[in-house]
Amino acid sequence: MSRPINEASHPVVQRSEAARPRGLRTDYCGELRSSDAGRTVSVCGWVARRREHGEHLAFVDLRDHTGIVQCVVDGAADLRSEFVIRVTGELRLRPADKLNAAIPTGEVELGADVVEVLSASEAPPFALDGRADTDEQVRLRYRYLDLRSERMQRNLRIRARVNAAIRRSMDRQGLAEIETPLLWTPTPEGAREFAIPSRLQIGSFYVLPQSPQIAKQLLMVSGFDRYFQIARCMRDEDLRADRQFEFTQLDLEASFVTQEDVWEMVEDSVLEATRDVTGEEPPEVVRVTWDEALDRWGTDKPDLRFGMEIVRLEQAVAGSEFNAFKAPAVRALCVQGEGALGRGRLDALTDRAKKLGAAGLVWLRVVAGEQGTGVALESPVAKFLSAGEQSAIVKATEAEPGDLILAVAGERQLTCQVLGQLRLELGQPPVSEPPYRYLWVTEIPLFEGLDEAGNPLAAHHPFTMPHLDDLDRLESDPLSVRSQSYDLVVNGWELGSGSIRIHRADMQRRIFSVLGISDEEAESRFGFLLGAFRYGAPPHGGFAYGIDRLVAILAGEENIREVIAFPKTQSGADLMASSPRELSDRQLAELGLRIIKPPARGAQPGS
Question: What is the pTM of this model?
Answer without folding.
Answer: 0.89
